[in-house]
């Protein structure tokens, strides 16, 4: 019985090797969360670019939001993309599913995408380390702001 009591006195928290394993898991989780955030921002950026290609008249309204989404993607480690031109050059038409037919539907779809992504980022906060959680929270708040701006006429 005494031997069992001695064995239970040790814990992984006191083992330096377990601290290293915990640190590796934390770094892996951080990289996974950042990669997901970069991919999500890239996908949202693609939606903005498809909307701008389909509706060049929306450039003044969507361009600044698109540029901010590009900065968000870069902050999560995605490769930088050039800013949207002031007057988009003709480009191949996006696929029909990429952008709804009317400007109103396009803007509404972007607002919905922004809200959904902001919600996913807010949910990811609990798993993220402090510094990444602050970045996720900031970007989620910006996305919620974008959604609001997209719903205002």
How would you describe what is shown here?
With 153 residues, the protein is mainly α. The chain is built from five helices and no strands. Helix 2 packs antiparallel against helix 3 (59-75). Residues 4-13 and 87-97 have low confidence and may be disordered.
Secondary structure topology:
Layout lengths: L1 H7 L7 H39 L4 H17 L27 H22 L5 H22 L2
Helix pairs in contact: 2-3, 2-4, 3-5, 4-5
The number of strands is 0
Please tally the helical runs, counting DSSP H or I stretches of 4 or more residues.
Answer: 5
Work out the strand percent. Answer: under 5%
Q: Name the structural class.
A: mainly alpha
Task: Name the descriptors.
mainly alpha, 153 residues
Briefly characterize the structure:
With 153 residues, this protein is an all-alpha fold. 70% of the residues lie in helices and 0% in strands. The longest helix has 39 residues, at 16-54.
């Amino acid at each position: 019985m005494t031997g069992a009591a001695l064995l239970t006195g040790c814990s992984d928290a006191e083992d330096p090797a377990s601290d290293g394993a915990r640190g590796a898991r934390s770094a892996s989780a951080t990289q996974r969360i950042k990669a997901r955030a970069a991919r999500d921002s890239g996908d949202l950026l693609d939606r903005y670019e498809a909307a701008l290609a389909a509706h060049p008249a929306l450039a003044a309204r969507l361009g600044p939001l698109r540029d901010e989404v590009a900065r968000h993607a870069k902050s999560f480690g995605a490769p930088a993309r050039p800013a949207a031109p002031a007057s988009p050059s003709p480009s191949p038409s996006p696929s029909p599913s990429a952008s709804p037919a009317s400007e109103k539907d396009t803007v509404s779809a972007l607002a919905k995408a922004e809200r959904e992504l902001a919600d996913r980022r807010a949910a990811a906060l609990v798993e993220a380390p402090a510094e990444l959680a602050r970045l996720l929270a900031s970007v989620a708040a910006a996305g919620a702001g974008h959604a609001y701006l997209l719903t205002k006429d």
